[in-house]
Structures are given as structure tokens and as C-alpha cells.
Specification:
It is a single chain. This protein is α+β, with helices and mostly antiparallel strands. It has 12 helices and 16 strands. The longest helix is centred in the middle third of the chain and has 23 residues. β14 and β15 form a beta hairpin. The structure holds 4-amino-1,4-dioxobutan-2-aminium adenosine-5'-monophosphate (4AD). 4-amino-1,4-dioxobutan-2-aminium adenosine-5'-monophosphate binds next to β11, β15, β16 and α12. This is aspartate--tRNA ligase.
């Protein structure tokens, strides 16, 4: 085959070289009958291609006219020679130009796209600047973006978000593999709810009532029972959320880990702020927010605690541990010294939960009792409970929401921005 160049690789050292590139026509600017510019884009890189009608270069005025008729975002091939511009280029990422010899339209985009990429790519700072200058810019709403996601994804910030997401997932995997965890895959079509509660998608499995897994929880524990000392899973998780929030999806990617435990390791986390739940409740109380002693923190209380922790301990990152029994899932191990509390924790970034974990109950009797107390029909999870009667080691683990973590790392305000094709209570397409 022929040798194709990547736009991102084109720098000064390529000057004088003949190249062949394929990209999306991000901008097309006719200058005169004899001259035009076409900016080509590949993911986050752009380069300016210059068409000048000249017999030497084998470029005709018809060819210049032909290229200026391309619709924006059409896929275009260019053969040309890399040159250095006379002045620094402001509109492209690459500081070289391509002197076009040949240009082909491989697949045209419709003449008017439903969203304009330039509008979609604008930052909040652009809007502020425009406002000061008395200009009016088009704001592309989140819903419109999601409706036309195949266009919206082309903005530099979206290209960055999903590359970051890939790296976060990769780091999770790499780290756990380096600690001898084994990656597993557990079923997503299951017979009973794994986290309890109403947030479960019900379906018929060959006529039998079933549901979509709310987490790999029960099966990752059964893998521990099955002799795998340390396991992890990266996979889809389904929650039939019925409220629209900035941080809940109906389908997200769960990063889960589960491991045997032999002793208490908590004290090894010396650099991370660890706050007992009771202390968090006390801090909130002193700041005027009353929490029911055995109740849960709502979103607002979590946010407020995040601010209080920031003021008192100067950190955005902390672990809240020893949650009340009543607010944790049935499989969570009660504290030995006070069974009204649990050996459990959540990890927060800026007052928003990203990780949830705990030691698990490893005796079948207590597990069945807790399930019943939590209103779960034990017959729907009998195989899970029985697994703990065949010899099961003490164990614990945690789950992280990939989209949630990326949203908070990137300081984005909506989880839909970190899900490529989000599923929320209203959205099933695209
Ligand atoms: O807190 P959750 O429900 O915990 C579990 O699923 C347990 N099985 C984990 C464990 O091993 N103990 O979910 C874990 C994480 C949350 O911390 C949050 O980051 C994310 O998943 N999460 C959601 N992300 C997006 N949309 C939702 N509806 C989410 N619900 C939870």
C-alpha cells in the first residue's frame, strides 16, 4: 500500500517531503479563483492545505473550484508537499502547510450539519470573552450534542475526555494486574437484584423473571469462593435510576475489585484522610446540617461535607468509613464491636462519591439473615448464599464508576459528558 502520514506527526522536519493524508475537511476557504485553503483534521490535529493553481504543480483553476465546493466535514485525501508557512498559523495545531498536488473527496458530508462544530468546540472562556465584546455566539445545548453525538464527539475536548477515560481504565487494570489480581467477566443477565432496591431493570429470560446486573457484586464474591484470591472486572452495570441528576446514568462502566483479606490494612493508608462516618455527621451538625444518626448522607450533605473537609483538612480527597448498617447493602460486614455500623467506606472527590467498598459477610447464616432483613427474597440468591457454606475466605472489595471518576477528574459538571452514548432515564438513542 501507499504510505499515509498522520497529521500530528507533521513538523518542521517534514518540510519538502511528499505526503499523502486523509482527514475531515474542517474548514474550506476560497481566496480567489486561483487559490483556496482546506484545513484537514484527524482527531485532535489539524493542518492547513494550500491549493494554488499553477502549471508546475499540475493544479488547475477547475481543481481549486472543485475543492472549494466540498462540504465541511467531508472526508478528503490530499497528496502534496510539506512547506513552512511565512507566518505562524493560528487556526491549526500543526505549524506546517501542505502544498496540494492532488485532492479527492472520499465521502461527502451533507451540506449543512445539524450542529456546527465551531459552535460545539467553544469553551466557556470563549463565551465570556464574546459577551464582553458584545458578540452573540451560538451555544450548543447538551441534549442537542447527544442527539448528534457523531458530530459532537469530534470537538477537541471530547476527543480528550474519551482518551482520558481509556487511560483511567487502563491504569486500573495495570495496577491490579501488577498486584496479582485476575480479570474476570461475570454475567449481566441474572436472576435476582445484586444491590437490592428498586433500581433494577427487569426482563424475561426465556419466560423466567430476570434482571440486568446492577453490579458484578454477587459473582465477584463467588469467584473468591471459587479459589481466585484476587479478582477484578471492568464491565457494564445497569441501574434503573428514575431521577435525572448530573451524576447518575442507567448504564455505566463499573471498575470492580474483590480480594481475600487476612487482617486490617486500614492503617497503611497513612497519606489519605480517613474520616469515621460519625465524625462526618458531627462536622455537618456543627455546620447546621442535621443527619439522622443512622441515616444516609444525601447529595447536598455530601457536597457540604466535601467543603467542610476542604476547609478543615485542606484536601479534596477523603475516605469516609464505618457507615451505619441501615444504609449499606445486605452483604456488608457489620463491625465486630458494634453491629449497628459496618466495615465499609466510600471515597470522595470534592464531596462526590466515586468509590464504594466494604468487607463482606462470609458466613451463609448471617448473609441470609441480612438479605431477609433488607427485604430480599433469599430464594432468588440461594446459589450465591450457598457458595459461602462450601468454605469461603474472609474478603472485601470495592466498585468505582468510570464515568463518575472521569467527570470529577476533569471537573466536568455532567456525567453525560463522560459517557460516549449515555443512557439516562430519557435517553435510549443514539
Ligand atoms: O455505590 P455502588 O452502588 O456500589 C456497588 O455497586 C458495590 N457493589 C461496590 C462494592 O464493591 N461494594 O456503585 C459503585 C460506584 C459508585 O461509587 C459510583 O462511582 C458509581 O459506581 N455509580 C454510578 N455511576 C453512574 N451512574 C450511576 N447511577 C451510579 N451509581 C453508582
Amino acid at each position: 500500500g501507499r504510505s499515509w502520514s498522520q497529521i500530528g506527526d507533521l513538523d518542521d522536519s517534514a518540510a519538502g517531503r511528499s505526503v499523502l493524508i486523509r482527514g475531515a475537511a474542517q474548514a474550506i476557504r476560497p481566496v480567489s479563483k486561483k487559490m483556496a485553503f482546506v484545513v484537514l483534521r484527524q482527531s485532535m490535529s489539524t493542518v492547513q492545505c494550500v491549493l494554488v493553481a499553477s502549471a508546475d504543480a499540475g493544479v488547475s483553476t477547475q481543481m481549486v473550484r472543485f475543492a472549494t465546493a466540498f462540504s465541511k466535514e467531508s472526508i478528503v485525501d490530499v497528496e502534496g508537499v510539506v512547506s513552512l508557512p511565512k507566518e505562524p498559523l493560528k487556526a491549526t495545531t500543526q505549524q506546517v502547510e501542505i502544498q496540494v498536488r492532488k485532492i479527492y473527496c472520499i465521502n461527502r458530508a451533507i451540506p449543512t450539519l445539524p450542529i456546527n462544530l465551531e459552535d460545539a468546540a467553544r469553551s466557556e472562556a470563549d463565551f465570556e470573552k464574546a459577551e464582553l465584546a458584545g458578540e452573540k455566539l451560538v451555544r450548543v445545548g447538551q441534549d442537542t450534542r447527544l442527539n448528534y453525538r457523531a458530530i459532537d464527539l469530534r470537538t477537541p475536548s471530547n476527543q480528550a475526555v474519551f482518551r482520558i477515560q481509556c487511560q483511567v481504565e487502563n491504569k486500573f487494570r495495570e495496577f491490579l494486574l501488577s498486584k496479582d489480581f485476575v480479570g474476570i467477566h461475570t454475567p449481566k443477565l441474572i436472576s435476582g437484584s445484586s444491590e437490592g432496591g428498586a433500581a433494577v431493570f427487569k426482563l424475561l429470560y426465556n419466560g423466567q423473571p430476570a434482571c440486568l446486573a446492577q453490579s458484578p457484586q454477587l459473582y465477584k464474591q463467588m469467584a473468591i469462593c471459587g479459589g481466585f484470591e484476587r479478582v477484578f472486572e471492568v464491565g457494564p452495570v445497569f441501574r434503573a435510576e428514575n431521577s435525572n441528576t448530573h451524576r447518575h446514568l442507567c448504564e455505566f462502566v463499573g471498575l470492580d475489585a474483590e480480594m481475600e483479606i487476612k487482617e486490617h490494612y486500614f492503617e497503611y493508608l497513612d497519606k489519605t484522610l480517613k474520616l469515621p462516618y460519625e465524625e462526618g455527621v458531627q462536622m455537618l451538625k456543627e455546620a447546621g446540617t442535621e443527619i439522622e444518626p443512622m441515616g444516609d448522607l444525601n447529595t447536598e450533605a455530601e457536597k457540604k461535607l466535601g467543603r467542610l473537609v476542604r476547609e478543615k483538612y485542606n484536601t479534596d480527597f477523603f475516605i469516609l468509613y464505618r457507615y451505619p448498617l441501615a444504609v449499606r447493602p445486605f452483604y456488608t460486614m457489620p463491625c465486630y464491636d458494634n453491629p449497628a455500623y459496618t466495615n465499609s467506606f466510600d471515597v470522595f472527590i470534592r464531596g462526590e462519591e466515586i468509590i464504594s467498598g466494604a468487607q463482606r459477610i462470609h458466613t451463609p447464616e448471617l448473609l441470609a439473615k441480612r438479605a431477609t432483613e433488607c427485604g430480599i427474597d433469599v430464594s432468588t440468591i440461594s446459589a450465591y448464599i450457598e457458595s459461602f457454606s462450601y468454605g469461603a475466605p474472609p474478603h472485601g472489595g470495592f466498585g468505582v464508576g468510570l464515568e463518575r471518576v472521569v467527570m470529577l477528574f476533569c471537573a466536568l459538571n455532567n456525567i453525560r459528558k463522560t459517557s460516549m452514548f449515555p443512557r439516562d432515564p430519557q435517553r435510549l438513542v443514539p
